[in-house]
Structure formats: structure tokens, C-alpha cells
């Protein structure tokens, strides 16, 4: 029998020695250098290359055939990007200000994340789950739990593979805690995900068309800045009526502290405090849905920005973290068997997610003078000037209750909103197509009025990038108007 001599240190595992191997490290650094070289060729938006147009059309035809419906945009990436810029298979380069609805906080082709992903890919497990996992899954959960515990009672973390499944876990935790209480309190215009249950809780009729309705949801009006204190009083009255009408029947009050799909609507601390105090008095658990807001405001958790940690029983996060999670207090720690799953996340997702979290914590992103706050200020400065220059494109906006507002620039942190053409759905749809053709990828939000939604890669986008973006927007708006 032949025996080979191992280079493994007597104080480390074979796995640790492999990941610290100088040859592996050199190979990864070489790949990183080649990616960075290719990225330097992307410095601004550019139109498609005529000789590649057929390639894009054929791919989109295949996508339509396999899915049964065409894509929202003629988007298909080439696999190369440079921060907020991305190249498509037709050779065009566009400013990506939606980033998969906020998934890619560090944009396209971030070198640190590519390196982390490659290092994760040499692991023995492609996918980790709640039965078999490696140390990075523990580190990921610990990071989130420790960060949340700084300003709240949150203690435990369950990892899952999507924001929707994190929300499913949160609902189960709340239902078990309340002995199966059947009703849910949510806000008008909320979005929760697209599972059968979450489609029913989310306040968009099209997302639940044709499915069996078996979830009992009571909706509260969200904060209306035009009404101020009266809006707080009105929503609190609605909540008290629900508590009186269905005593002991609600398993949770769900709140997006900044509404996402609903229109990037914001509310002050006193709005949530009034509601959370009433809910807590009635024994109703409070669930903070931060799947879209996490990491994008002036603090890592949005509840921390509003100093609401003492009220939160359950919080869900996702998108920018690559893996998703449901966190809960010790009192809400569920019984064995309630939460599990074959997949939690890929090993590369844990590696990139940890890289994202560590950079966010140490990279100067948070606080009143942080990078995220400064980026929103730059956006607002450009947007306000744009509105002032073209007032005809920005008439007053009338909401579903008939109230009119002149506020057309809004949002918070990395969640930015612009409301042209009075919030008209058809006009904004046309504008989005024109923006895409001209070199800016955006999306819509709201349910009437409708808005332009921007989720720029706040991890890498710079204030000066809004200059060329708004130059393109001027062209696209003019074509639409």
C-alpha cells in the first residue's frame, strides 16, 4: 500500500488547508484580475451593436417559449458589468437602477463578491440546508442575530432561500405563538411575496387572481404625509376597531417600515409607535418585513433607524444578503419541526452574503453622513432640479382617495421614487420602455398613482453617476411626453 504525505497542518482540517492553499489563492487572484480588466471597457451607456441584435431577439424568443410569456424587459446580460453599468448580449451597456428589485446592492461584477463566490464554490457543498451545513452558515446567522440584538430583543435566526420563504417562516412563528390565531393585520398596498399565502396577504389583486382565498387579512391605511397627525389617528382608530371586533383572533401585525412595491411610502416613528403600542397591549405580535429595506436605509436594520427595536418580535430580511432569514426573540423561538428546509442557500451565497454584510458594517454606509444618506441627497438634488426644469412633466398627483399632492420626489436611502405624468400607469409604462432603450433600467411601484422606482446599487454607485443618468432621462422623458 502506498502512503502519500499530507501537507495538512496538524492543527487544522484538510478543508481549512485547501482554502488557505497559496496555489488556490493565486488562481483566484488571477481570475479576479482578468475580470477587472474586462470591466474597464464599460464606462458609460451605449446602444446595441447591430451585428448582435439577432442574438438578443433569438434569446428573448426562447425565453418567451419556455415561460409561456415574454419578459418585462428585453434584458439578457452578457455576464459582464461594472458597478452600476451592465452589458447585455446585444452589446448595449445600461445604467442598472433596479438591480433585480434591489438584490445586487454592489452592482454588477463586484470584484470582492466574485472572489468570495469563487472561494465558496470550491466547498464540498453546492447547496447547504437545515440538515447539512458548514461553518459559514453559522457565521451568517450569527452576524445577523448579533447585529439585530444591539438595538432589539431579537435573538435567533432561521436561514432560508428566499424572502418569500422567510415571510412564510415568520407567519408560522407568529401563528404558533398565538395558538393558531387565524387573522392577520397588514397595511394597504403591502407586498409579501408570491407563495399562495403571501399572495393573499399582499395587497395586489392581480397577484391572487384565480387562487383559493383562505387567509383572513385585515388592512390598515398606511401613513399619509398630507394628513400628518390625522393620518396617525385614523389608522390607530382602524386598528382599535379590528382589535375590538376580533379579540384574540390576530396572529400578527405586519409592517414594512418603508413600503416597497406599494410606492416607497415612508412614515415617521410616531406612526408606528402608536400602532405597535396598541398591538402589544392586545397581545398581537409585531412582524417587521425588511426583505427590501434591509441595508438600504441609514442603518442596517430599518427598525434601528426609527428606534423601534423594543417593539419587534419577528423580522424578515433578504435580497442584498443573497441568503434570506427570519429572526425572532427568545419568546418566539418555535417548537421543533416548525421551521426547516432542504435548501437554506448555496455556499457561494453564504460567502458573498457575509462579504456584503461585513462591508456594510465597516464601509461607512450608515448614519446621517453615511454613503447611503449622501447618495439619496445627490439623487434628490438632481431630481428636484429635473422637476423644476420640466414642470409640465410633473403635474400634481391625485391618490386613490382623491387627495392631491405636489410631492413628486420621494423615498428614503437607497429606495428612490419619482412621479411623472400625474402617476398615470400607461404613460409610465411607456417611459420605462424608452428609458431602457436609451440606457437606464428602472421599474414602477405603487398601485395608483404609479411611480418610477429606483433601487440603485448603493454599495458602489457614486453621487456623480446621477449626472449621466439624468441626461439620459431627459431624452427618454421628452420622447414619452
Structural overview:
This protein is α/β, with parallel strands linked by helices and 481 residues long. It has 3 domains: 20-96, no CATH class; 121-362, Aspartate Aminotransferase, domain 2 (3-Layer(aba) Sandwich); 371-480, Aspartate Aminotransferase, domain 1 (Alpha-Beta Complex). The protein is 39% helix and 16% strand. A hairpin with a 5-residue loop joins β13 and β14. The N and C termini lie far apart (81 Å).
Write the layout of secondary structure elements.
Elements: H1 14-19, H2 22-39, H3 53-67, E1 77-82, E2 85-88, E3 93-96, H4 99-102, H5 111-121, E4 127-128, H6 135-149, E5 154-160, H7 163-177, E6 183-187, H8 196-201, E7 216-220, H9 229-245, E8 250-255, H10 269-281, E9 286-290, H11 302-305, E10 314-317, E11 324-329, E12 345-346, H12 347-362, H13 371-389, E13 397-398, E14 404-405, E15 409-412, E16 415-418, H14 425-438, E17 440-441, E18 443-445, E19 451-454, H15 466-480
Parallel strand pairs: 3-17, 6-7, 6-8, 8-9, 9-10
Antiparallel strand pairs: 1-2, 2-3, 4-12, 5-11, 10-11, 13-14, 15-16, 16-19, 18-19
Helix pairs in contact: 2-5, 5-12, 6-12, 9-10, 13-15, 14-15
CA radius of gyration: 24 Å
The SS-based structural class is alpha/beta
Strand content: 15-25%
Number of β-strand runs? 19
Shape by Cα distribution = globular
Give the biggest beta sheet. Answer: 7 strands, mixed
Given the structure, what is the number of helices?
15
Task: Write the CATH homologous superfamily of the largest domain.
Answer: Type I PLP-dependent aspartate aminotransferase-like (Major domain)
Strand order of the largest sheet: 5-11-10-9-8-6-7
| CATH C-level label of the largest domain | Alpha Beta
Number of domains: 3
CATH topology-level fold name of the largest domain: Aspartate Aminotransferase, domain 2
Low-confidence stretches: 1-6
Estimate the mean pLDDT confidence: 95
Could you give the distance between the termini?
A: 81 Å
Helical residue percent?
A: 25-40%
User: What CATH architecture of the largest domain do you see?
Assistant: 3-Layer(aba) Sandwich
